[in-house]
Write a structure and sequence with these properties.
The complex is a heterodimer of chains A (314) and B (296).
Chain A lengths: L10 H18 L4 H36 L6 H4 L13 H32 L5 H13 L4 H13 L9 H25 L3 H9 L4 H30 L2 H5 L20 H10 L3 H31 L5
Helix pairs in contact in A: 2-12, 4-7, 4-9, 4-11, 6-7, 7-9, 8-9, 9-12, 11-12
Chain B lengths: L1 H13 L8 H8 L10 E12 L2 E12 L3 E5 L6 H7 L10 E9 L2 E2 L7 H7 E4 L10 H12 L4 H11 L3 H4 L12 H13 L5 E5 L7 H14 L4 E5 L3 H7 L2 E10 L4 E11 H6 L4 H7 L5
Parallel strand pairs in B: 2-10, 3-8, 3-9, 6-7, 7-8
Antiparallel strand pairs in B: 1-2, 1-4, 4-5, 9-10
Classes of the chains: A mainly alpha (314), B alpha/beta (296).
Chain lengths: 314, 296
């Protein structure tokens, strides 16, 4: 037996350790080959799903960017449609029309949507059947196809009881109805995220329920509500179908007015250009798609930033 | 008696200013049989029962809570201490299924009388909660919130006075505009106490105010309570028997009663007396077992 250096394990210890390690390694590495293959295959499927989603978006952007590149320029936003010089046609009336529409939607949807959300979260007794019915309806309304809202707008806002005619205000009200359920649902989420302890603390000081809502609950839920409103507005901005029914399809060469005369909007103007036989208009339509995508991405990014920036840590 | 009740309702709903108590009506209120000798009572509970959805949570409690004293409610979990303390400023109203029977007299006026406005009740009877619940605002705005919504004058002076009374002024005077969420747990709880006393209440209810705090913060809050009882009447719910023994003048011990046939459980008052007596020479065997640590 050789003399053992201090710190060196004996032969028997070494053997025992090696045996134990081998056993552990065997049990840890015991996955059959088929298992590993299935795991990798599944991962590949998931990546494929992500790739398909990204490819679709990339295809839209690249194709339109190439096709519309010759039309990029300031005339795109400063000039109106023109049949005489189609290569110089732009979206000025459509952009102004879309701004009116968005302003109208904000003015209508914020008070009504937040009001409805406050009622449902803070006042309504959720166990009553009528409140359950309202809740169910709002959930369903968010999923109704937008063309239905177009028909509704045509029947009740353009004609019928409101009888506004084909004006931008009618378009704004129609789009408001379309995005109202989204705003209500987002606002309710934001209000519900304010912990009950904040309400209790406020009420225990002798504040009334309205003071508590006005000064504690609503300020604390503003970022969440704003995020929901921006996302709703960006949806309203991109909608063409309901606007076609309530009068925004016209080829407008002048700056639209909010309450009178014809109006146009970005998506309907793109639709209009794309349908025209001249190739020059198709190029302008492609440039318009890029313009709208940029605006939408900017708005959505702002909404996401807002949500992350003001996320409350209760 | 009817006159007195009407006057009580008027004083309870009519006043908008500082919630000081109309002394004459107080004196009349306590003369009708429920005052103990010596100190005046703030609350007189007469066979008070609180139920949630018809099931009693605490049954048949009768006790008087005295002015400028600290009254502790102790007992095992589920004995209805929190339910009871939330009755005293009508915070139970926030739970739709809660109902109250019996009488809860505040300076002789029934808190659950038909013409009493819970908002007016809560102006006079403040509350500090188990978990510090500062508002997501600056330190100053947290304390100023109460005076502002109640329309009290001199908000700035009030905030300073309240923060001084809560022994917090020196720690926060240079960062009043910082968010209250940046404070430590103990500071947050003292901020909640400052917020409560900024509206000059008559009573402060504390529902396990130290259960989320470390021993040093707890010690500070206890010192604070001992100072505050000079001006306010304090009711505290606590799980910590040492805390009850250290700070309170009177202690009420509640237990959980089980009804094995109907599978109901509710809280019941076993003994209510001066704290010294409860901890050294209780009259009830169950109290003795609990305070000596044999059960619970």
């Amino acid at each position: 037996m050789s003399p053992r250096l201090p710190g060196m394990p004996s032969e028997r210890t070494r053997l025992a350790t090696a045996g134990a390690q081998a056993t552990v390694a065997a049990s840890l590495g015991a996955r059959p080959r088929g298992d590993r293959w299935r795991g990798n295959f599944f991962l590949a499927l998931l990546l494929l799903a992500v790739a398909i989603a990204m490819l679709a978006l990339a295809a839209v952007i690249i194709q339109n960017a190439i096709k519309g590149s010759s039309a990029f320029g300031t005339h795109l936003v400063t000039d109106g449609p023109s049949t005489i010089f189609p290569e110089k046609a732009g979206f000025r009336p459509a952009i102004i029309g879309s701004l009116y529409l968005m302003a109208g939607v904000i003015l209508f949807v914020v008070p009504v949507g937040v009001g409805a959300a406050v009622y449902l979260e803070e006042y309504a007794d959720g166990s009553r059947w009528w409140n359950k019915l309202i809740e169910l309806n709002i959930q369903n309304l968010a999923a109704v196809p937008s063309i239905i809202y177009g028909i509704l707008g045509l029947a009740f806002i353009v004609r019928g009881p409101l009888d506004l005619g084909f004006v931008a205000l009618a378009g704004a009200l129609t789009l408001s109805l379309l995005v109202l359920p989204t705003v209500i649902i987002a606002s309710r989420e934001a209000i519900r995220a304010v912990p009950p302890s904040i309400r209790e603390g406020s009420l225990a000081l002798g504040a009334t329920q309205w003071q508590t809502i006005r000064r504690q609950v609503l300020p604390a839920s503003v970022p969440g509500i704003a995020t929901g409103v921006i996302l709703a507005i960006s949806r309203a901005l991109g909608e063409a179908a309901p606007l076609l029914l309530v009068g925004a399809a016209t080829f407008v060469t002048f700056d639209p007015q909010p309450l009178s005369g014809g109006y146009s909007a970005l998506p309907t103007q793109i639709f209009n250009y794309a349908l025209r036989p001249q190739d020059e208009f198709k190029v302008v339509a492609a440039a318009g798609v890029i313009l709208m995508l940029v605006v939408l991405l900017a708005m959505n990014s702002f909404a996401v930033w807002l949500r992350n920036r003001y996320e409350q840590q209760w | 008696m009817a006159d007195q009740a009407r006057r009580a309702a008027e004083t309870a709903t009519g006043r908008k200013g500082a919630p000081e108590i109309d002394v004459s009506s107080v004196a009349e209120g306590v003369t009708h049989g429920h005052a103990r000798q010596g100190a005046k009572t703030v609350f007189d509970l007469e066979s008070l029962t609180v139920s949630y959805a018809g099931k009693p949570a605490v049954k048949d409690v009768s006790m008087g809570i005295h002015e400028n004293e600290i009254t502790a409610l102790i007992g095992p979990s589920g004995c209805g201490k929190s339910t009871l303390i939330r009755c005293l400023n009508r915070m139970n109203d926030l739970i739709p299924s809660a109902s109250v029977e019996g009488k809860c007299l505040y300076h002789g006026h029934d808190l659950y009388g038909p013409s009493v406005d819970p908002v007016e009740v809560r102006k006079r009877i403040g509350m500090v909660f188990q978990k510090p619940n500062p508002f997501p605002k600056s330190i100053f705005d947290n304390v100023a919130f109460g005076p502002r919504v109640l329309g009290l004058p001199d908000v700035k002076e009030r905030v300073e006075r309240a923060l001084r009374s809560a022994a917090l002024w020196d720690e926060v005077k240079d960062r009043l505009d910082e968010n209250a969420y940046g404070m430590s747990g103990g500071q947050q709880q003292r901020l909640c106490i400052a917020r409560c006393i900024a509206v000059d209440p008559d009573v402060i209810l504390m529902d396990e105010p130290c259960s989320a705090l470390d021993p040093i913060s707890t010690g500070r809050i206890e010192d604070l309570m001992l100072e505050l009882k000079e001006q306010y009447s304090i009711v505290i719910v606590t799980h910590n028997m040492q805390q009850a023994a250290r700070v309170s003048n009177r202690t009420a011990f509640l237990i959980v009663q089980l009804d094995s046939e109907e599978d109901n459980r509710w809280g019941q008052l076993v003994e209510y007396d001066e704290t010294d007596k409860i901890f050294t020479n209780p009259s009830d065997r169950r109290t003795e077992d609990y305070v000596t640590g044999k059960v619970g």
